[in-house]
Amino acid sequence: MSATDPAATPAAADTCIIGAGIAGLTAGKALAEAGVDYHCYERGSDIGGLWRYDNDSGTSSAYRSLHIDSSRQSIGYPDFPVPGHLPDYLSHFQVAEHFDRYAERFGLRAPIRLRSDVTSVTPAGGGWDVTVAPVGDGEPTTHRYRRVILANGHLTHPKLPAFPGGFDGEAIHSHHYKVADRFEGKRVLVVGIGNSAVDIAVDIARQARDVLLSTRRSAWIMPKYISGIPTDRWLRFMTARLKLPVPAARGMLRYIAQLAIGDQRRFGVPRPAHPVWREHATLSQELLPYLGHGWIRMKPNIATLDGDTVAFVDGSREPVDAIIYATGYETRFPFLDPSVFRVEDGRPPALYRRIIHLDHPTLFFSGLVQPVGATIPLVEVQGRWIASVIAGRIELPDRSGMMAEIDGHRARVASQYLDAARYTLEVDARSYTAAMNTDLRAGLRRPG
């Protein structure tokens, strides 16, 4: 049945998951354990999403040298930890292999339809018409589901800045960066100072003729190790064992880190105007030494692009052969009409517990969060929460109660983080996980 047919074929399962990355896999596992049949559609030819290097789905932004920024102990599932023989910080290859083992251990592959591109999700008959086009040959088909879980990720659609003027050289977004070889002998400008920007600048520094790193408002640079211990383990010790609030723990950690690495201003990285707890710090063990060795040079924000030259807001000008924009992503759901749902930069979406759509309570979002630290434990608890709601074990508040929770979340984000698009999906991992687990425990205590 084609997508243009007015009626949809009733699906054999009541629930549909879109995406077989970490969010889709954990949601599927939780549904199966709750006795809920589901189908999962994945555009690529294998599972893993972002962490499948060179994924033919086109959704992966992994580059060859990428290693995860959260330590091994932080990214394991409660019932499937990362093996202890693996390094503190896994490569994308090792992360993908871990997900492969996870899928095999819990039998998650059977409901997944690979090379299946969801082109439309439309409200219909109290449920959802989901149109799926086979990648390659084949006609699209439309199936009706009672519920849809969107787990397709939010790091897929590159966001590019608009600077005055024009640039004659090669310009790409970091989403499309893979290896350093293509920049050998070139003068390269990397725009941004987040984790990807710094990783890429370091990656190409020994092959390029010159590497510049441009930042608009700078960032706090934190090492991946302090006294040989992964930094996020220090943070977890302060919050879990010492019971410090997250802002206080992060502020203390900055002072400890400064004793180890020194004042970042000495290396040319401006000190941000905001405290460290109001943003995501940039984790890098290498940036400051590379600046100290002259492999990378810091520059302020771009003023204008002028052919093969870039002018900066401090009045300086530099010849540039290539620009890599590590400037973030737009949160988009191309298969959903914007009237059904859209994310506005700087305004957390109206989703109860960051999951349930108020106007469409059978539309769930998994993984639409951005924490300080690892996302994997959060999507795991989200999956169990969604499954418990679908199985009727969690009683949801009425609309006014859900809206109050959303307003409270928005107020906390506005008070704690910078007013920037980067924090639209922000959650405090500790308080968010605690709230979800409270709901789950209450559901387990319900009779029936």
What does this structure look like?
- There is one protein chain.
- The chain is α/β, with parallel strands linked by helices and 448 residues long.
- It has two domains: 9-157 and 329-445, FAD/NAD(P)-binding domain; 160-325, 3-Layer(bba) Sandwich (FAD/NAD(P)-binding domain), CATH 3.50.50.
- It is 28% helix and 22% strand.
- The chain has ten helices and 28 strands.
- It has helices at 22-33, 72-75, 92-105, 195-205, 231-241, 246-261, 287-292, 376-390, 399-416, 429-445, and strands at residues 9-10, 15-18, 38-41, 112-113, 116-124, 127-134, 141-145, 147-150, 157-158, 165-167, 170-173, 187-191, 210-214, 221-222, 225-226, 229-230, 282-283, 297-299, 302-307, 309-312, 317-319, 322-325, 329-330, 351-352, 356-357, 363-365, 370-371, 426-427.
- The strands form nine sheets. A five-stranded parallel beta sheet has the order 4-3-2-8-26, with helices on one face. The protein has a five-stranded parallel beta sheet with strand order 11-22-12-13-18, covered by helices on one side. It has a four-stranded mixed beta sheet with strand order 1-7-6-5, with no helix packed on it.
- Strand 15 and strand 16 form a beta hairpin.
- Helix 8 (376-390) runs parallel beside helix 10 (429-445).
- The longest helix is centred in the C-terminal third of the chain and has 18 residues, at 399-416.
